[in-house]
C-alpha cells in the first residue's frame, strides 16, 4: 500500500513535467516560425533590392495591367483642378499630370515632385543606394544669377557634404539639362540629351560648393583634384519635347546607381512610369 501511495505523486509530477515540456516546445515552435517568417520577409526584401541593382541592361519593361491602370487614370480627362498627388508639401493637379502625356513639355511642378521623390527614396534605401540630394528647378537659375547668398537658406538644415551626389535640374532657355556634384568621383557633371557644351555651369557649381563649405565651416573640402565631366555619349532625344523626361531619367538612374541604358524608344513607357511613381510615391523601376 505504501509503495502505491508513493508512486502517485511521481506520476503526477511526470505528467506535469511532460505538459510543461510540450507547452515549452509549442512556444518554441511558434517562435521559430515567427523568426523563420521574418527571415523570409527580410530575404524577399534583400532579393528585391538585388534585383533592382542587377536588373538587365536596356530593360525597361512595359507596365503591368494594374500599373497601367493607375498611370492612365492619372493622365485621363477630368477637372484640371483635381488633386492627383499630394506629398512632400507639394501638390500636383490633373493639369500638371497632363504634362506627362506624350508630346508635352514637363513643368516645374512635375519635375520638383519627382526630384523630391528621388531624395526621399534615397533616404529610405538606408545605404543600399547612393545618398542623393536633389535641388528644385528654381535653385540653379537663382544661384547663377545672384550667387550663394540668395540660396544659402535653402540648405541651412542640410549638410550637403554628407551626400554622395547632388542633383541639380537646369532650365537652359527652353531646354532641361542636369548638373551633378559628384563627391564620390570628385567631379562636376553636366548631362544634356541634346549634347552641347555649357562650361559656365561647371564654374557655377564649383563656386557654389566652395561658398557652401565656407558657410558651413567645412574645412575638408579640396577641389584641386576635381574634374569637369560632360559626356557626349549619354542618351539623346530625337524630338523637341522629351528633354524633361530625359533629365528626370538621368537623375533617377544616378540615384539608383544604374547606367544610362534608356533611349528615345523608351520615352512613352517612362512618361507613364513617372505618372505611376508619382501616384504611388515610390519607384517601380
Structural features, described:
This protein is an alpha/beta fold. 48% of the residues lie in helices and 13% in strands. It is built from 8 helices and 7 strands, in the order ααββααβαβββαβαα. The strands form 2 sheets. Strands 3-4-5-6-7 form a 5-stranded mixed β-sheet, with helices on both faces. The protein starts with a helix and ends in a 5-residue tail after the last helix. The model has no long low-confidence stretch (mean pLDDT 88).
Q: Distance between termini?
A: 81 Å
State the share of residues found in helices, binned by percent: 40-55%
Which word captures the global form?
globular
The helix/strand order is HHEEHHEHEEEHEHH
Radius of gyration: 27 Å
Strand order across the biggest sheet?
A: 3-4-5-6-7
Number of helices: 8
List the uncertain runs. none
Which secondary structure elements does this structure contain, and how are they paired or packed?
Elements: H1 2-53, H2 65-75, E1 83-87, E2 90-93, H3 94-97, H4 108-125, E3 132-134, H5 139-146, E4 165-172, E5 175-182, E6 187-191, H6 199-215, E7 227-229, H7 243-255, H8 267-280
Parallel strand pairs: 3-4, 6-7
Antiparallel strand pairs: 1-2, 4-5, 5-6
Helix pairs in contact: 2-8, 4-7
